[in-house]
TrEMBL record:
PANTHER family: SLL0781 PROTEIN. This is Nuclear transport factor 2 family protein. Gene3D superfamilies: 3.10.450.50. It comes from Isoptericola peretonis. It holds the Pfam family DUF1348. It comes from the Bacteria. InterPro entries: DUF1348 (IPR009783), NTF2-like_dom_sf (IPR032710).
Length: 146
């Protein structure tokens, strides 16, 4: 696979670019596209789920977005080093019963020299919200836009 810029070592500017690229990709809700940002043998912890490899990531994301409907995400750079980035994030979604949620969390990322993420560790908490409390772009007063 070809390199995925920006590449480490990161500066503040390139770390911000990497975070924005991740936010943009995740908001597509396309598991195959999102998985291309990770190494073939990537290692993940997402809440209490441990994954290894792109195929498991794709399967996980497919199930996630079947459950978390009208998902909208915002990520924010928290800190960075030469090959690591830490972000805080929040996302909004609703379940099949129509209940809306806002999920808050932190992720720790580690990158390979080619710019692919080899490790992603996420801690996430969910808070139930009223549809009128939605605040992320892409939601229209609790009515899904997609």
């Amino acid at each position: 696979m070809s390199p995925r810029p920006p590449l480490p070592p990161f500066t503040e500017q390139t770390a911000r670019q990497k975070v924005q690229a991740a936010e943009d990709a995740w908001n597509t809700r396309d598991p195959e596209r999102v998985a291309l940002a990770y190494t073939q043998d990537t290692r993940w912890r997402n809440r209490d789920v441990f994954l290894r490899g792109r195929p498991q990531v794709v399967e996980f994301l497919r199930a996630k977005w079947e459950r978390e409907l009208d998902y909208r995400l915002r990520k924010e750079l928290w800190a960075w080093t030469a090959d690591r980035i830490s972000v805080r994030f929040e996302y909004e979604w609703h379940d099949a019963g129509g209940a809306w949620w806002r999920s808050y969390g932190n992720e720790q990322w580690e990158f390979a020299a080619d710019g692919l993420m080899r490790r992603r560790y996420a801690s996430i908490n969910d808070v139930r919200i009223a549809a009128g409390d939605l605040r992320l772009p892409g939601h229209d007063h609790g009515r899904p836009t997609s």
